[in-house]
Specification:
Distance between the termini: 6 Å
Shape: globular
Structural class: alpha+beta
Largest sheet: 5 strands, antiparallel
Number of helices: 5
Number of strands: 5
């Protein structure tokens, strides 16, 4: 099961986050409802995107700070122990964190069930097929996402949802 996706820029700011399966934990009955209307699905996705944007714009996002802190600390520890930058994943009894960093220091993080296989290639695919195509190549997209302005490209958001929901462990 895939719980969340986080994207950090080279300045360590969270520029995008998306959470899945949070409603299933709090309301397991309502989580199995499916809409049969395509327009209803688009409205639902637009509302979810707006909620994500509001949550992303919160001045103190403790979860993003904690996740970035974990990644930063573990990468430094791995570098000191192995003399190479080979941190890609770690697992606890509750979750597994998957990590991919681009040459431009974008950090892609995915939190999943601890039983999931390594998703480094999935994160690379998100970078190449979605981020580069819909954000980097978009002339209207800002180069830097500073000042709390995150990734708000609708094609990226919808593409990410479609891609992640098609993965075998999404459930």
């Amino acid at each position: 099961m895939i719980y969340s996706f986080w994207l950090f820029d080279r300045h360590s700011e969270c520029i995008y986050k998306r959470e899945w399966h949070t409603a299933k934990k709090s309301n397991p009955i309502g989580a199995h409802k499916h809409s049969s209307s395509a327009s209803s699905d688009l409205i639902t996705k637009a509302v979810q995107h707006k909620q994500q944007q509001e949550a992303r714009d919160a001045p103190h996002d403790d979860d993003a700070k904690l996740i970035f802190g974990i990644v930063f600390s573990l990468r430094n520890m791995v570098r000191k122990l192995t003399d190479e930058d080979s941190f890609v994943t770690y697992r606890t009894s509750k979750y597994r964190l998957h990590y991919f960093e681009t040459p431009s220091n974008l950090k892609f993080v995915m939190i999943t069930d601890p039983k999931m296989d390594n998703l480094r290639l999935v994160l690379h695919q998100i970078y190449v097929s979605l981020y580069v195509e819909y954000v980097v190549k978009n002339p209207l997209s800002p180069i830097e996402h500073g000042g709390g302005a995150g990734v708000s490209n609708e094609l990226f958001v919808l593409g990410l949802d479609a891609f992640v929901s098609s993965l075998p462990g999404f459930d």
